[in-house]
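Attaching the record inline, Q. Sequence:
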Amino acid sequence: MWGEGFSVISELRITTDAESYYDLAMAEGRLTSLAQQYRDGLVNLAVGNLQPGETVWVELDLLAGLDVRDEGWRFRFPFTLAPLYHRKARALESRPDVGKLELPGEPDGGILPTWLWDARDLHRIGFELRLALPTPLRALRSPTHRIEVRQETDAEVLVRLATDADAPNRDLVLEATSRDPFTAW
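Structure, as predicted:
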């Protein structure tokens, strides 16, 4: 995570220690973040104490497999914003205008961080994904989001959400077809 005048590299910690550190930083009014992975590939990223008008960037390095097909590949990028979509999740109102998700079968009920039901004036979120490609693409599409695709080179593509209104609250699925027969590298 970085912003004007600072950059921070995350540390891998035991869940309870990471949650305690995040809660302490929140109570002290410091900018803080916490990424957690749940079962079923669900990832949650919380950024706390972000000030009005402040811009921060969060970079996630993701190691994931591809569903390889003869003509290309399929990739699922886990978005981390609440309220996120999960087929088993139940949305609950924890207090007026504040929601939370519960994931049945998770420890402690799988309660994820809370969010405001109407966050239109709270923040803006952008998304950019740079793909390093093993072979040139014929097409790249998403069945889950409207995307903009910019071919940087034969070996690199830049993907962005097409509109700010499309909140990244469900995983982004990308489906690619290659110009040449595709083989896993």
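The longest helix spans residues 15-27. The first strand starts at residue 2 and ends at 3.

More tomorrow.
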